[in-house]
Amino acid sequence: MKPISLIQFLIEERRAGHINAELTLLIEVVARACKRIAVATNKGAIGGVLGEAGTGNIQGEAQKKLDVISNEILLEANAWGGQLAACASEEMEDPQQIPDMYPKGHHLLLFDPLDGSSNIDVNISVGTIFSVLRCPDGVTEPKAEHFLQPGTTQLAAGYVVYGPATVLVLTFGHGTHEFTLDREVGSFILSRRDIRIPEETAEFAINMSNQRHWEPPMQRYIGELLAGQDGPRGKDFNMRWVASMVADVHRIITRGGVFFYPLDAKIKSKGGKLRVMYEANPMAFIIEQAGGSATTGRERILDLQPTGLHQRVPVFLGSKKEVEVATHYHLEADGARS
Length: 338
Ligand code: AFP
Prior knowledge:
Elements: H1 6-15, H2 21-43, E1 52-56, E2 62-64, H3 65-79, E3 84-89, E4 96-97, E5 107-115, E6 126-134, H4 144-147, E7 156-162, E8 166-171, E9 176-182, E10 187-192, E11 203-205, H5 216-227, E12 238-239, H6 245-255, E13 258-261, E14 274-275, H7 276-289, E15 293-295, E16 312-313, E17 315-318, H8 320-337
Parallel strand pairs: 3-5, 11-12, 11-13
Antiparallel strand pairs: 1-2, 3-4, 5-6, 6-7, 7-8, 8-9, 9-10, 13-17, 14-16, 15-17
Bound molecules: 1,6-di-O-phosphono-alpha-D-fructofuranose.
1,6-di-O-phosphono-alpha-D-fructofuranose binds next to loops.
């Protein structure tokens, strides 16, 4: 079969009425920026891009050099294209306005420029996660409040994994599709269309070192998985944890599985670990469009009304059956308590 490039696929989506011309170009610009980030990450130590940047971000985290480089690449690429009204990043407290010398568009872009950056120095897969919203009509200088739209209003969501291969996964609400970067040609080529995640799975991902801090329903759920076939679930489960959400989610998009970053006593005051706007919402949209589920342990992530640009939530996502069981245990416990 003749390879289908990303731009060809985008034009097909446009002809199908799924996206408009401006969003077509915006995704092209983001994909091109991610190709530049792939080049930077691939250089590693000989490119002088490893290690700390010596600066901190709004999350109170020490920034890696590649956090800063990736953020700048995405800001620069999206400043002059004319598709954006503003953008927001994990690395910046407030939204970035489009310089007055450039035309403004009708979209808002949110991104985690380099997810899993604590893995970069040890050469484990990292990635970029992005979400696209419509800019409210009549708003010329978008503020944080204009980004606070439920995940159901996303026009597009995607991530790029910088691993052995560079892979882009994308949805516009008409299925989830995968593209692999052909480095010789320099183009993303469609490698899987309309991905479906199996409803059942025997593979879970969670940071087990937090176990003693989890809520009782999470203790119960994971305890039953670990009990295996002699336990109430009657089957053995395997565990994986990369500590790069993009890599853990890509494994689930590829062969199924379930991912948890639950609420625990350590992060309770923050509301969770992972951020709603540029981690939970885009990943929930991608997973749901591939036939999976995504909740906070209590409610559907995409139905959440965000309260802040850097708001954090618990995240349960992946194969439907396991997300439903874990969520049921939490609601049941809440019910028993109320
Ligand atoms: P960094 O970007 O700071 O490495 O955090 C990665 C992340 O946000 C997400 O990608 C992982 O799933 C999660 O944090 C890993 O958390 P732990 O460090 O608690 O395992």
